[in-house]
Amino acid sequence: MLKKVLTFAWLFVNVIQAFVILFWTMFCAVFVVLFGYVSPSFARWVVYRFWAYSFSMIMGAKIVYDDGGIDWKDGPRLFYANHSSNIDIPAILSHTPVPLHFIAKKSLRHFPFVGQAMVTVGTIFIDRENLEKAKKSLELAKREILENGKNLVAFPEGTRSDSGELLPFKKGAFLLALEAGIPVVPIAIDGARDRLRKPVLFSTPGPIRIKVGRPIDSTKFSYEQRDEFVKTARQALIDLRNEQKGAH
Question: Residue 117's pLDDT is what?
Fold first, then answer.
């Protein structure tokens, strides 16, 4: 009987959490869009620090962040991470000391308020269904990197992994890194799926461990070696995740 009462109580807490997160995300999105016209840098701060920190806190997640001693001033770079939960994004944003600009699928742009907020903070959208539009988006991203020194972040699996195992990589982000001549840096996320599983917003408190790996020099690969480059990047993330799991 007690077990049923506790289960119901925790379900009730989760429902409250879900409503709070949805309301808070929508509120912050509207705030970001409005202030983006006045101060884009302040709008980004709201997302990177205020919203991201509060999202993790409401979900009861404790972020354990290991930057691997990386020099954050040495940019721009393309960061890429495994993806198994909605909490991956706020977990990364809340603890990375430099502004990150996401590469995301175009469909997210049409999400009410949130999509416009993503535009405001400089998200680059890729149309996977239209090759020509995808190329134009990648050219825009390349220009943002070379002219403005922006650090990008991508989830190359293209979707959240239901099992937590690493899915095959999409090539788009890595082709961008090749053309721009910038390093790619793996980020391993462990524990996010246990905190917040797809597709629901019901969470379980606990740690999320984030570990930043060593940069991979894209200039050592030619365009003809793009498949090898993607394979190397994927293996680097696999090795980083194994190293991370072996450390605790």
Answer: 87
> What residue ranges of the chain have pLDDT lower than 50?
none
Neighbours of 245 (CB within 10 A): 12
Pick the closest to residue 95 from 126, 129, 61 (CA basis).
61
Determine how β-strand 184-190 pairs with β-strand 206-212. antiparallel
Q: Is 26 left (phi over 0), alpha (psi -120 to 50) or beta?
A: alpha
Q: Which amino acid is at 118?
A: M
State the CATH architecture for 2-246.
3-Layer(aba) Sandwich (3.40)
Secondary structure letter of residue 51 according to DSSP: I
Q: How far apart are CA 33 and CA 28, in angstroms?
A: 9
Q: Give how far Cα 195 sits from Cα of 43, 91, 213, Å.
A: 27, 11, 23
Tell which residue, 95, 110, 102, has the closest CA to residue 78.
Answer: 102
- Domain residue spans of the chain: 2-246
CA torsion, points 157, 189, 121, 111, in degrees to nearest 10? Answer: 60
- CA dist 111 → 54, 98, 108, 118 (Å): 21, 26, 5, 10
In this predicted model, what pLDDT tens digit does every residue of 69-121 receive, in sequence order? Answer: 888 888 789 999 999 888 898 899 888 888 888 888 787 888 888 888 888 88
For residue 34, give the nearest of 120, 112, 125 by alpha carbon. Answer: 120
Output the pLDDT for position 56.
Answer: 86
